[in-house]
Every structure is written in C-alpha cells, then in structure tokens.
Amino acid sequence: MKYQSTRGNAAGIESAEAILEGLAGDGGLFVPEELPQTDRSFIESLAALPYAERAAKIIGLFLTDYTTEELLACTKAAYGGKKFDNARIAPVRSISDDSFLELWHGPTSAFKDMALQLLPQLMQTALKKTGKKEDILILVATSGDTGKAALEGFADVEQIKILTFYPEGGVSDIQRLQMVTQQGKNVEVIAVKGNFDDAQNGVKKIFNDAAFAGELKAEGVELSSANSINWGRLVPQIVYYFTSYIDLVAEGRITADEVLDYTVPTGNFGDILAGYYAKRMGLPVGRLVCAANDNNVLADFLTTGIYDRNRDFHKTISPSMDILISSNLERLLYHVAGSEKTTAWMAELAATGRYQADAETMSTIRETFRAGWADQSATRAAIQSVYEKDNYVLDPHTAVAYRVAQDYIKAERSRTKMVIVSTASPYKFNDTVLAALDKDVPKDPMEALTALSNIADAPIPAGLASLKNAEELHRTVVEKSEMQRAVAAFARK
Ligand SMILES: *Cc1c(COP(=O)(O)O)cnc(C)c1O
Q1: Which residues does the chain have with pLDDT short of 70?
Q2: Which atom of ligand 1 lies closest to the CA of 424?
Q3: Which domain holds residue 452?
Q4: DSSP character for 191?
Q5: What residues are in contact with ligand 1 under a 6 Å CB criterion?
Q6: How much is the pLDDT for 171?
C-alpha cells in the first residue's frame, strides 16, 4: 500500500517514509492511496487473539512495507508488556445500557497512549528499514496530555530524542508533575514563560527555520514531530474500533454483523476519523457522532457545511478538546471530495479562517457523521447523573460525549447500540470531577487523588499514584526567545 498527500502530491510514498516525515511537502497530510477491505471471517479471526496480535493484523493491512515480524515486535512492545493496567488494553465497560470504550489504561491515563505507545516503535523500525543514520529529535509543544504521553512513549527509544515544551503555569498540577518527573536518558522537559500558543508558535518557528535544520542535520540530527497528523499516530487508533466490536459480539451484547454507533469526544478529529476508516474497511459501524465542547467549530461544520474558526476560543473543563483547527478533518475531506477541492478549502481556511463545503460532499459526510456539543454545566451534570445512576465516574471529556450521545439518541429516536468512547481516566481531571460531584477539592493534587478514590469504584492509576514520591528532574524555564537555543543545546547533548 502506498501513500500520498491529501493535496494531491507525493504519490507512491511507503508508509515508513510517511511516518518519518509526518507532514507531506505540500503541507498536506499523508493518506493511503486505497483503503484495505475486511470481511466477517477476518473480523472473526481476530477474536481469539490478544490485543497486540489483533493490532499487528489490522495495522499490517496499511503498513504493507513492514514485515509481519516487525509489526508484531512493535505492537508487543507497545501493548504486550506491563505498561497498560488492563490486560485487554482497550476494554469495553458495559454498565446498565451504556457501553464505554475505555482508552485510558495506558501509562499516562489518557487516550493519547493508545497511539503514542506504538508510534515510537513504528518510527524506530522505519529508521532501520530506510537506513537513515541521523538521530531524530522529536519536538512537542503541549497543553498537557500529549506531552506526557509522548515522553512516556519515546523514553529510552534508541536513535530518537524528545524535548517537550509546556507553558509555565498553563497545565494542571498533575500534568506538570507527570512531565517534570519523566525519566529516560533521551528526554528533556522545559517550561516556557508564556501560554500554550507561545510554546506552539515557538516550536512551529523552529520547524520552519531551514537554516537551523541544516545546521542540525550537519551534526546528524533531524527534527520531527509526534503530533496527531502523523499517519503513525492515526493508524493505531483504527484497531480499537475493531476490538470493541469483537468484544461486544463475544459478550453477546450485539450479534455478528449488527450495526454499532460510536460517540467520540473530539478535538483534532483523529480519534473519530479512525472510526471512519474502520467503517470504510467493512466494520459494521453505523453513525459516528462527533461530540464537542463550547469550542463547537466541528459540530457546526458537520451540521451546516461551513467551517469557521473566526470565533472566540473557550478555555473549558475538557481542555484536550479546546481546539479551533481540527487538522485531521482534512483527511476526511480528501476521502470524500478528493484532493482538488480539499486543497482549495485548506487554502481558504489559511487565508480567511473559513470555508464552505459543497452540498454533495456534505450529504456524503452526513451519511455517517452526526454532531453535537455540550457546554460546561451540561458536562458537569452528566458526570453527576452517571455517578448517581451507575456509581461510575466519567472524566469531563467522556462526559461531553455521554451528553451528546443522549441528545443524539433522543433526537433521532435511534435504536442502534451506542458505544461512548472514553478518553481519559477521571483521576487525571480529579479537581473538575470532584467539583462536579459537589465534593470538597483538596488543594494538594495527591490528596485530591485520594479524595476521588474514596468515592470512585476504581483504583488510582499506578502512573498517577507514583507521582507522590517521584523526584522532579526537569526544572529548566526559558523565555520564548530562548527556545531555539534550548533545542540546539539538547540536540548536541
Ligand atoms: C486528545 C484528546 C481528545 C481529542 O481527540 P482527537 O483525536 O484530537 O479528536 C479527547 N479527549 C482526551 C482526553 C484527549 O486527550
């Protein structure tokens, strides 16, 4: 299988190259030139296998330049050891009529681990396959979840280093502690005096500085990124749509071939797009419901066909969905409308912050997609009502999806079985969750974990509990203007 850019260029690229490059040269995203097809016997053949082997089979349909042995080594390193605290890796938890696909059993307690545990393995294997001799330096600007998940995934991976910038004072206490205690001989974590946009713009500037890239390359270092536009981050996410389907059949909650709907808390559109790929590959997926918070640019687009980022940015209690540009939507547009229209819309978006998709495109998209959004009080109410009903504690992102799913089922009188995709452990957002449940919120983040564990029917994840005694290893703080110098210094280390 070969890859090309959503903007029509770079045809005939192998997946290993696409994963190392991240973004295509024309500014587009890499997409497979055709979509592999699966049938019922393929799906049934996965049922008896552990998650790592299921993943190797499904991912192997896309990464055809990797050998079966290579892929199995990658997926076993990611999902086969002790890094996830649930042997099923991505278990479906069914409570009364609701089914939650829990994607937060990895080392950092959020769904980013599903992809960022595997991406480093895929990259390292790609380096070997392509014979690249340079070291890769991954730069990340993070508002919280991605930074820690990337650090955890890339720590001690050979031939790759990782440097994460976070805004000083701009991440939660737990998120800061998770990052500054990160171990590994190839990792660095630096606070930037500024907000998330400052950190992100600083990283973008470094990526766009060709002279700087040349200097580093002369010293044997190439910059790369681990953000969610990389195909190597998207493809691992297709797997859990298949495994959740298989598991619900095995539990007798659906019959083989029965159609299943998913509601997905959405930010950059990567998670839900993976569900679209699964459907196009033949998995019996019906609707994909896109759930947004107050930053409802995507919900508006899927409803009206107009994408307009010219609106206020809201900082919400579901921060990982606080996004106004959903990069992966470009891939959906490409698959539905082709590269010519996609290129034009993306140019309009860059120039004016707005574009309108044509009626034919929207009607195809709406065969599969629905959307809704929940504001912060509806989100808190969802946390409370599920806890009262089922003694199950939702994190605020999953609570957005829960509320949007309820609205969807009611509005469309749907009788199709719905899976809510659950993207973070409630412990990761314990202050918001405790407040939503009308509990006191201890100031100390470790005490807050304990307070939540007294009411939640689930243990504190090991990665969070261990923060209590972990040493703070990364204390560097830099001005925005010093970020490039920090990158150069770490590259030479
Ligand atoms: C990243 C993230 C999301 C959004 O996922 P996308 O793939 O960006 O749409 C939702 N919830 C949590 C907890 C996340 O970390």
Answers
A1: none
A2: 13
A3: 92-108+232-313+366-457
A4: E
A5: 110-112, 145, 228, 265-271, 320-321, 397, 423-424
A6: 85
